[in-house]
Give the backbone structure.
Amino acid sequence: MKIIFLDFDGVLNSHKYMGSDAYKKETQGMTGGQVMKLAHHAHIDPAALKILNKLVDQTGATVVVSSTWRIIYSVEELNKMCKARGATFTIVDKTPELPRRFSEFIPRGKEIQAYIDSLPQIPEGILIIDDWENMIHLSPYLLRTNEADGIKNSQIKLAIKILNKSYVNK
C-alpha cells in the first residue's frame, strides 16, 4: 500500500490560480467570506487535480487528506468537491487532529505519523504533498509545493521517486 498525504492550500490551489480569469469569473460578485462559505470548491484548481489524477493513476496510491480542510469538511464533502472539479481518485481518509493546548502548534508530520501508526500494516511508500516544511522526521517523503504555483506537472517524476522509496517507520 502506498499513501499520498494531501494538503489543499498551496497544492490544489495557488496565487496563480486565484488570480486567473476562470477563478474570477466563477466567484464574480462574491466576497471572500461568501466564497469560503458557499463556493469553497472554487478554491480547487481543476488543472492541479489533473496532475494529482495522473500521479494516482501511475502509482495506484491511495489519498489521505492532511490539510486543515479535514477539520472543516468530512471526507465525503472533500470527495464531492474534488469530484465536481475533475478528480478521478477518491480520498479514503484523513489524518487525525491531535489534542493540543491553547495556541500550541503541532507539526503536520506528527499528525501524519499518528495516522501511519494507526494502520494495521506499515505502508510500503508514502508521499506528502504540501507547501509547508513542518514534517519533522518525515521530510524525506515531502514533495514541497509553493503557494504561488501549487503542484506542477514537472513535479510528477520526483513525486513518483519519493513514493517509491521504502517507508521506514521511526
